[in-house]
Every structure is written in structure tokens, then in C-alpha cells.
Design brief:
- The protein has about 190 residues and is α/β, with parallel strands linked by helices.
- It is built from five helices and ten strands; from the N terminus they run ββαβαβαβαβαββββ.
- The strands form two sheets. Strands 5-4-3-6-7-10-9-8 form an eight-stranded mixed β-sheet. A two-stranded antiparallel sheet has the order 1-2.
- Helix 5 links the parallel strand 6 and strand 7.
- The radius of gyration is 16 Å and the shape is globular.
């Protein structure tokens, strides 16, 4: 009989490499290979970056980014069970490591914009049934720092707008049934 593997999501790199995080019931965490690809693409941009993780689920992207040199990370989630999971995962790695915010998305982004916070890197992994991508991009645009980048994970079967809210899609990468769409401000 094989030993059972821990259920959850395993962090793939940085200071917390190999640590397993809990996943809230019903969540579809980013596949390990997709997260690894994301962090490989972002590479040195993570060093000292301010990261925003939307639809954070387990908090894996926010937490792994901190272990890879990000200056700060904010995990945003609207599901109470997921918020508890993110908090428990964060406390396992270091109390106060990330900031956790309870917001329904994309509507909550307007509240976040009012704070004046800006982020260098924004990652969003909405549920695959989500269909408000244009509103999501429009809500993210005012939160993006100059030279900032947005990455949205979505089903490879869904094609996102090439432009929304002043953001322009610069690339789309596919990993099986999953795609990552990259956006930057069209002003640059």
C-alpha cells in the first residue's frame, strides 16, 4: 500500500518550497506546473514587488511570492471558508506574512482603489464559471503601478478581451486546459 500523499497544494519554490498548504473545499487551486510557469515568467520582477492575489483560494500565490522575495502581498477572497484557510496557511508560514482582505470580486476592487494602494504584480484566478472578466480588468486597472502587470488564469476555452480598462493583453500562454493571459497598461 502506497503512503497517502498530503492533500493540498505544494509550494514549488522560494523560501517555503515543498510546504503543503490546505485548500478550501470546492476550490480549484492553480496547478503546480502553472504556478511554476507563472513564477518563472515573473522571475526577478518578484524581488521587492507589491503583489495582489485575487480569488486567492488557498493563498498559495501570495504566500509563495513572499517566499520568492516580494515586498508585500495582499490576498483577496470573498468566500468565508477560503478566508479561514488562507489565514491558517499564512499562520503556518509566518504570522503577519501577508495581508488578507474579505471582498466580493470584482465589485470590491473599487474599495481597494479608494485606498490609493498600487501593485506591481496582480494575479487573478477566478472560478472557471466566472464571466465578468472585462469588469475585473476594469477594476484592476487603477490598482496597477506604473510598469505593473496583470495575469489572469482562465480556461483555455475562454478568450479574454484584448483590451479593457486601459489594459492591453500582451500575451496568452496555454498549459493544457488552463491559460494565463498577461496584461499591461496601454499607456506604456
Amino acid at each position: 500500500m502506497k503512503p497517502s500523499r498530503p492533500s493540498g497544494v505544494r509550494l514549488s519554490g522560494g523560501e517555503f518550497r515543498g510546504r503543503v498548504l490546505a485548500v478550501p473545499k470546492g476550490a480549484r487551486p492553480s496547478e503546480g506546473r502553472v504556478r511554476e510557469a507563472l513564477f518563472s515568467i515573473w522571475g526577478q520582477r518578484l524581488e521587492g514587488a507589491r503583489l495582489l492575489d485575487l480569488f486567492a483560494g488557498s493563498g498559495a500565490v501570495a504566500l509563495e511570492s513572499m517566499g520568492r522575495g516580494a515586498m508585500s502581498a495582499v490576498a483577496v477572497e470573498g468566500n468565508p471558508q477560503a478566508l479561514e484557510t488562507i489565514e491558517a496557511n499564512a499562520n503556518k508560514l509566518g504570522k503577519g506574512l501577508i495581508e488578507i482582505r474579505n471582498m466580493i470580486l470584482p465589485a470590491g476592487l473599487a474599495r481597494l482603489a479608494e485606498t490609493g494602494e498600487r501593485f506591481d504584480l496582480v494575479f487573478a484566478d477566478p472560478p472557471y464559471a466566472f464571466n465578468a472578466y472585462t469588469g475585473l480588468l476594469e477594476g484592476i486597472a487603477p490598482l496597477l503601478a506604473e510598469e505593473g502587470e496583470v495575469v489572469i488564469e482562465h480556461s483555455a476555452r475562454v478568450h479574454l478581451a484584448t483590451e479593457a480598462g486601459g489594459l492591453v493583453q500582451i500575451e496568452e500562454r496555454r498549459y493544457g486546459e488552463t491559460a494565463l493571459s498577461f496584461y499591461r497598461s496601454g499607456a506604456g
